Amino acid sequence: MPKKRIKKWLAVPVVCFIFMGCSANETSHQHAKDNQKNTIRIMAPLLSPESPGENSPSLKALEAYTKKDIKVTWVPNSSYNDKFNIVMASGDMPHAIVVTDKSPGFIKSVKAGAFWELSKYVKDYKNLSRADEKVMKNSSVNGEVYGIYRARDLIRASIIIRTDWLTNVGLDMPKTIEDFYEVLKAFKEKDPDKNGKDDTYGMVVPKWMGLGNGSPWDIMQTWFGAPNRYGVNENGELVPDFTTDEYMEALRFFKKLYDERLINQDFAVMDSAKWNDPIVKGKAGVIVDTGSRASQIQSALEEADPKNKNVIDVVGTVKGPKGTYTFPTSGYAGMIAIPKASVKTEKELKDVLAFLDKMNDEQAQIIANNGVEGRNYKLENGTFTSLEKNNKKLLYEHEGLAQFSMGIPEQRYYIAEQKTRLFKHRQQVVKEGEKIAVFNPAESLVSDLYTQKGAQLDNIILDAKTQFIIGDIDEKGFQDAVELWYKSGGEELMKELNELYLQSK
């Protein structure tokens, strides 16, 4: 493969019940009992310390609304993919299973015919028929739909900034990459907290390097006109982002931020769970991430000192050398798939789809995401107030239920902060970002080679990216890593992806 880069591209749960020893008769008997009881069995990840128990008022309310006896197998999120593979091998499946990503295990199961293909069915349901076509395609496997996606905002990327620090250094919210750089430099050099000490820096970045999955580096590279994971060159072919000139320009900028100590020097090892800490503790003033993090930081700053009211704000993106772009999400976070092992007929399939459709009704979304009125929240003159602030037990009664609340065609539950300035600015970021988003043209494509060797290939580039930023290798060293990527399977990968891309068009 030639070393010259391609220069142009076009932006286009607590307990898991696994019945390994069930015989076919026992499984059939279980399914018959489920049908008699009008039961729906679901497997979902648990991100909270506690799952909603069987007697959870929220679960009971959801059962009453959907007219289903809902049985959930909760699996800790940290081990979810492993449990998913075990359950698939066991043969004893739930009626609906949350698939957190297109993991090799899921793709293998799809190719083995383990899940229903849903394209021709969703049109028959009130909510599911209104699913976003772009997001449905993104969540598909080479254009075929094997799950109902769990919706997320297409635009979440934001620059989160301490506005009190901006005031102290005499700057406005940045509008260009140059402005952004000046803000970071001022936050390091101009004593933004006015304590007379040289103890601050510009932006905090964790060890999340990212390859098209929304890391700070992914977001910032689009400012320079670089692709989102893959671009399309002048010949209409997919090319990796790291082979473009725009990517290298972004990489040089990242190195400059590191060399001038405008970002934390330990970014390569910093735990993302501690990402907010430097801002809350007054050490840094900027984070580039999803806009929702801004609210977390604002709340933490106010808890630390009530004087810190309204000190955090967001801007969506900044103008770069080739225009103004922003990084979108794929529009979903996993999906809900329906296994053929437990849902054997079209009649049963349509019954499960009817349940999933009903889960998208406004009332079901509210129960799953907010709980029960009068217990978990109150409404006064149309204003939503959570009653869970100092009672995590109340939150845990319903929090897990959101894992199978899809939000199609739109989010219909209450958000406590809807009337705040910060929330309104975040909504503005979303609206503006949809017009300038750089989408990944290969989002829906699933390559066999990537399923087998993707992690190895990704690590070659991720390691080189880190090494370049911290100065362990130069540009030649980075290009050597790109050549290694091609020789290690990257060349075959791009051939396979381009064949799939051509077929998808």
Automatic annotation (TrEMBL):
Database matches in CDD domains: PBP2_AlgQ_like_1 (cd13580)
Keyword Transcription part of the UniProt annotation: no
Alphabetical list of Gene3D superfamilies matching this protein: Periplasmic binding protein-like II (3.40.190.10)
Region forming the signal peptide: 1-24
Alphabetical UniProt keywords: Cell membrane, Lipoprotein, Membrane, Palmitate, Signal
InterPro entries tied to this protein: Bact_solute-bd_prot1 (IPR050490), SBP (IPR006059)
Stored PANTHER family: ARABINOSE-BINDING PROTEIN-RELATED, POLYGALACTURONAN_RHAMNOGALACTURONAN-BINDING PROTEIN YTCQ
Protein name: Lipoprotein LipO
Species lineage: Bacteria, Bacillati, Bacillota, Bacilli, Bacillales
